[in-house]
Amino acid sequence: MMGSGKKQARFETGSERAINRVAEGTSMKGTLTCEASLRVDGTFEGELETKGRLVIGAAGSVSGTIRCAQCEVEGRLDGEVVVEELLAMKAGSRIEGEVKYGQLSVEEGAVVTGTLQLVSKVKDLTSSDRRKDRGAVEATA
Predict the structure, then answer these.
(1) What is the per-residue pLDDT for 67?
(2) Model confidence over 15-35: pLDDT tens digits?
(3) How far apart are CA 29 and CA 117, in angstroms?
(4) 130's torsion region: left (phi>0), alpha (psi -120 to 50) or beta?
(5) If I label 89, which of 33, 81, 100, 110 is the partner at 20 to 30 A Cα–Cα?
(6) Contact, 100 vs 119, CB < 8 A?
(7) Three-state DSSP class for 134?
């Protein structure tokens, strides 16, 4: 009806609201690159990069080389991980490997085996910087 005052539904065309999903019972291997957020309730192994948020559900498992803007872990995360902003570890989560992050939130019951490194400008890290950092061990007293 014309002039009814009702607003028409607006469809989101950008990737701002889009969420990719790996459902429970699904296994993926390879390289995954996306602009939008990603939720993993299944298993992913390989290279993963998202400019959005990575959420690993309680049944989810992600392993490999991971780079994302934000990460929330309820399940398992293994490998070389770069989180540009907030890494949130929920109770029962397990992380193993080398993790660089901008901010960290850890709930009681979360388990980490490996290295956690606060990096003030994670966004500026390049792959060459990550390769150099692997061999470097820094200790202060």
Answers:
(1) 97
(2) 456 889 999 999 999 999 999
(3) 27
(4) alpha
(5) 33
(6) yes
(7) helix
